[in-house]
Amino acid sequence: MKKLVLDELNRINVEEFKQAEKTPIIIVLDDIRSLHNIGAVFRTSDAFLIEKIYLCGITATPPNKEIHKTALGATDTVAWEYAKNVVEIVEKLKVENVDVYSVEQVENSIMLNDFSVSENVKYALVFGNEVKGVSQEVVNLSNGVIEIPQLGTKHSLNISVSAGIVIWDLFQKLQTLK
Questions:
Q1: From CA 55, how far away is CA 84, in angstroms rounded?
Q2: pTM over cut 0.85
Q3: Could you tell me the mean pLDDT of each successive run of 10 residues in the chain, 178 residues long?
Q4: What gap in Å lies between CA 62 and CA 141, rounded to an integer?
Q5: How many of the other CB atoms lie within 10 Å of CB of 62?
């Protein structure tokens, strides 16, 4: 097996990305402190043609050297918008008939492996602060809460790792509906 070089990967360019049909997933980042986490979520969102990212609260926005270091240009491809108030964004998305799911550990959460997607539904995934998680107010407004099963001794994952896991899982499930 020969390792592929960049030219052999047949990646689309920025303009092709912007014109491409997007995966019906929106990411909402609320009060994310780490610029590296923000950049990593942009890069993962680019990889899976995510429709949009909302950056809320204290979450930093591009252009930013530290975000760019991890995003590697994905801030130029993935649509994004800043909103000070995450509650207003969640309410707006729900009015637009987007199913909003917080990614958190709560009573009666849906384990990710048990979560089913539906055709013709757009999903928003809310990821919260590295320490405090998704606020109770946003959890209460959500259509539901998705939890990533964890079997070890730790009770949480890094937000960029969580985003990668959940985005990949929903992306795969949505692909099977096509």
A1: 8
A2: yes
A3: 90 94 98 98 98 98 97 97 98 98 97 97 98 97 98 94 98 95
A4: 28
A5: 18
